[in-house]
Amino acid sequence: MDHKNLRYWSGEAAKWAEEYHANLRDRPVRPLTTPGDTVAKLPAIAPEAAEDMAQIFDDFKAIVPGAMTHWQHPRFFAYFPANASPASMLAEQLANAISAQAMLWQTAPAANEMEEVMVRWLRDALGLANHFTGTIHDSATTATLSAILTMRERALDYKGLSAGLSGQPRLRLYASAQNHSSVDKGARLAGIGQDNLVKIATDANHGMDPAALDAAIKADIAAGYKPAGVILCVGGTSIGACDPIAACLKIAKAHDLYTHVDAAWAGSAMICSEFRGLWHGVDGADSVVFNPHKWLGVQFDCAVQFLADPTAQINTLGLRPEYLKTQGADEINNYNEWTVPLGRRFRALKIWFTLRAYGLSGLRTRIRNHVAWSAQVAEAIAVLPDFHLITAPVLSLFTFQYAPAGQDANTATANLLEQINNDGRIYLTQTVHDGKFVIRVQVGQFDCTEADVMMIPAVLNELTKSD
Ligand SMILES: *Cc1c(COP(=O)(O)O)cnc(C)c1O
Asked: How confident is the model at residue 328 (pLDDT cuts 50, 70, 90)?
């Protein structure tokens, strides 16, 4: 395989991709495969001799697609979306062709400068204040870890970096239980510890109670702990919970705490001004993350972190040994100093392609449709016999239970979920809310239509009618 052959096989791959996407609706969203199926199809050891690309390509077709869950399937309503617009796929193909390592300005000048501009484009598109700069990570998990490490070091006067954590004050972080598990992971990995992540009580709307936050911080200070930061969520993964951002930031600021807002999924919706009430006050945050790779259509992986002032994070994560210095260029951003890994992919290109190929207005139309269709489908489910909405739509996410007379609702709902996903026409996943096993519905796939979405109540009705 050389570059000449690459041209031919790229063409074959593009043809295959077109057909794959054209026929995706005919495939079950979740594959009919069991653990070990793929292992059984792969040789136990790597080949000694070079193999023919035609054979490799055939094996790909025979083994892989049938054992994949199809995230780009228009009836994927599980988890959150991981949308890949065709324009972002094309950008990835071009980034692959160049395959640069964008760790420093001078290792990838256009990538570096495009990253700066794309962060600005997105900041303005989301309606964030123009003091924010930022960077692109692989995932929201990494961005949140970066923010938590920054909280730690800011609270320790940057002494943890050199002296380690032993003998330092015991730090505390604050978040509600509606936050994503990446916050727990961040607390663990940053050496702060799960036990020092205080879960603040939520109000009737499942948002953090600011008075409880204030009380927890004061109690910790009185007990000799050192509060370090507050992590807030907008559109929590379970049911879409949103903390009251302005009120919580006010408490955090009063205690001089660093603040991070996780809007990994819901952030994309903020390109529509009518949804910005969900994160009212966000301009006061130190750090905000959202994933263009979820709802905006920018192919995985792409997480954008906005920073009110990058200095504290650069002081925490940046390290500039002699061999990474760029002579005579102090004014440039070397984004590896803003993020955890040194090596970085050229992720800005797919943002550029996506925003230009669909325009903000095209992307807004998609998100508005998803939100409207989600409300429609929630209403349709609510009137089906024995179905109950448990949480109302937040943007395009809601949950429901199936509770036929004489059956345990949690068990009946779990059994129904298994039936739905074995049926394969739609794909849904579960969460536990207030002790109830519930099915989540999120509408957000890039190519889904109203008919795709209305297939949800149709399938539910069909599967439960014969009971
Ligand atoms: C998806 C999600 C995450 C995790 O995102 P990754 O990019 O997969 O790390 C974190 N928080 C929220 C609210 C999410 O929706």
From this structure: low
Beta carbons of 173 and 192 less than 8 angstroms apart = yes
Which of ligand 1's atoms lies nearest the C-alpha of 138? 7
The answer, yes or no, to whether any atom of ligand 1 lies below 6 A from the CB of 299, is no
Q: Residue 184 is encoded by which pair of tokens? A: 């727990």
Give yes or no for a contact between 331 and 106, defined as CB atoms under 8 angstroms apart. Answer: no
Element (H, E) at 387: strand 387-394
What's the whole-number mean pLDDT along residues 412-434?
A: 95
Residue 321 has pLDDT above 90, yes or no: no
Region label for 164, one of left (φ > 0), alpha (ψ between -120 and 50) or beta (otherwise): left
Q: What is this structure's pTM? A: 0.95
How do the domains of the chain map onto residue ranges?
101-345
Pairing of strands 303-307, 287-290: antiparallel
Q: Which of 324, 366, 233, 293 lies closest to 92, judged by CA?
A: 293
CA–CA dist 160, 467 (Å, integer): 61
pLDDT on residue 15? 97
C-beta atoms surrounding 15 within 10 Å: 10
d(CA 247, CA 203) in angstroms, rounded, equals 13
Ligand 1 contacts CB of residue 431 (under 6 A): no
Cα(58) to ligand 1 centroid in Å equals 35
* Residue 318 · residue 338 · CB < 8 Å: yes
CA 302 to chain centre: 8
Q: What is the pLDDT of residue 269?
A: 98
Distance, in Å, from the CA atom of 91 to the CA atom of 189, rounded to the nearest integer, reads 33
Q: Look up residue 225 and give its two tokens.
A: 């702990």
Q: Is the distance from CB of 224 to CB of 170 less than 8 angstroms?
A: yes
Task: Tell whether ligand 1 has an atom less than 6 A from the beta carbon of residue 237.
Answer: yes
Say if ligand 1 is within 6 A of residue 80 CB.
Answer: yes
Check if 290 has its Cβ closer than 6 Å to any atom of ligand 1. no
288 with 128: CB under 8 angstroms? yes
Domain 101-345 class, CATH top level: alpha beta
Nearest-atom number in ligand 1 for the CA of 180 is: 11
Please write the tens of the pLDDT for every residue from 274-295. Answer: 999 999 999 999 999 999 999 9
pLDDT at 332: 81
Q: Which residues pair with 229 in a beta bridge?
A: 173, 258
Maximum alpha-carbon separation in the chain = 76
Q: Quote the CA–CA distance of 194 and 183 in Å, as a whole number.
A: 9
Dihedral of CA atoms 49, 54, 55, 59 in degrees, nearest 10, equals 130
